[in-house]
Amino acid sequence: MNRESDVLILGAGAIGLCCAYYLLKSGHSVTLLDQSTPGSGSSYGNCGTITPSHAPPLAKPGMVGQALRWMLDPSAPFYVKPRLDPALFAWLLGFARRCTWPAFEHGLRAKAALLNPSRYAIERMCREEQLQCEFSTAGHLTVFKSAEAMDAFAWWPRALAQVGIGVVELDRTQMRAREPALRDDVIGGFDTPDDAQFRPDLFVAELLRCVLAKGARIEPHFSVENLVFAGHRWRAIGTNGERLGRAAVLALGAWSPKLGRQLGLRVPIQPGKGYSITTERPDLAPKVPVVCRERSIAITPWESTYRIGSTMEFAGYDSTLNRRRLDALVTGAREYLVDPIGQTRIEEWYGWRPMSMDDVPIIGPAPGHEGLWLATGHGMLGMSMSASTGQLIDDLISHRTPSIDPAPYDPARFA
Ligand SMILES: Cc1cc2nc3c(=O)[nH]c(=O)nc-3n(C[C@H](O)[C@H](O)[C@H](O)COP(=O)(O)OP(=O)(O)OC[C@H]3O[C@@H](n4cnc5c(N)ncnc54)[C@H](O)[C@@H]3O)c2cc1C
């Protein structure tokens, strides 16, 4: 069966679903294809924070040295599995080259330009479509145990101020008043009151319901194995036959380079594996999401459940759950919280973040391929940037002047 839509969207994670949402609102017909069930990739078990405050890119002077030191510590939040992989080597080299202040400033502005409007677009979407995903706007805390580490983080509020993101510094007493679930030896940190949160699995499930109601066609368990342009149409060829679209959006998250390679496209993304543990709420759960800075551990409390997540493992498409890394999440949380984890463990999970080489998303026309668009490479912030990405893709495909300057995300920067 050769069904044809205006737009074929490959990948039904938060990014593909948000692209579908805005394209449908502009009157396009849309088919979403996913190799598995929609929302079952990285968009499922992540920490669900919507954080413009995380705009500063990873590529920053000093990052290479920090990464090398982490490599020597088996419970550290960062790990590269040593192996002969030319794509990984090229990615690491490209990343290292971007650890300069000019590249950092560029990445900061590019990410903030997506994150700031996305935060409010997500809130609007949740309200207008009545998405039941425990969306809330209580802010976000970044906390420290050592004065030395907090001093070394002084660049962070300065960077955020440059892109209009408010930060309030809190000392030990103020932090304790803001968040009583923290231990006495937490020395203070930063409050970013404009940050928000939702349950990511509920967000994607509700968004799926919403786009279906707006007329989207969804085909789960359709693994796209090839994409060809013939007769002015894109043909997605996969396990269940062929689907046609006048345009196609590649929103395959960490899997994007695989199809990109077949099309001769350079999509420098590595899967950055992260883990999470979901439990019932501890008795003394924090009121707001917390990042435990020295351990790089993120904790998100929701009305219904509670999650600890972290780590960045470059181990290729490795699908094992590493017990040592999962245990390190709990050990780390214990250093900051009075009651670090709920009694009943609901789920242990890993996901592959789509890490682009410059930690800036790749959004825009695929070089040399008319009618093919990329919406990928959102790294650690795909949930937060999902709405803006959908709006930008819709603006571009609908031939409207985009409200966000697309230049920094142009896939051609890697061509
Ligand atoms: C531990 C952890 C914590 C995180 N916390 C946060 C957070 O707090 N806030 C935040 O903003 N972000 C967070 N992230 C990052 C966020 O999860 C990702 O950036 C985001 O989910 C990427 O969305 P996506 O739609 O691009 O990818 P995905 O959700 O992975 O979707 C890609 C889809 O493509 C499908 N697919 C792949 N190949 C094919 C094929 N050949 N044919 C058809 N379909 C295919 C997959 O099945 C999948 O459904 C976190 C990530 C991790 C791992």
Keyphrases for this structure?
11 helices, alpha/beta, single chain, 8-stranded mixed β-sheet, FAD/NAD(P)-binding domain, binds flavin-adenine dinucleotide, 9-stranded mixed β-sheet, globular, 415 residues
Describe the protein.
This protein has 415 residues and is α/β, with parallel strands linked by helices. The protein has one domain: FAD/NAD(P)-binding domain, CATH 3.50.50. It is 31% helix and 26% strand. It has eleven helices and 19 strands. It has helices spanning 14-25, 63-71, 86-97, 101-128, 147-152, 155-162, 172-178, 200-213, 256-262, 323-334, 386-397, and strands spanning 3-10, 30-33, 49-50, 78-80, 141-144, 168-171, 188-191, 196-197, 217-219, 224-230, 233-238, 241-250, 269-279, 290-292, 297-301, 306-314, 345-356, 362-365, 372-376. The strands form three sheets. Strands 4, 5, 6, 7, 13, 14, 15, 16 and 17 form a nine-stranded mixed β-sheet that branches. Strands 1, 2, 9, 10, 11, 12, 18 and 19 form an eight-stranded mixed β-sheet that branches. The protein has a two-stranded antiparallel ribbon with strand order 3-8. The chain is globular and about 65 Å long. The mean pLDDT is 96. The structure holds flavin-adenine dinucleotide.
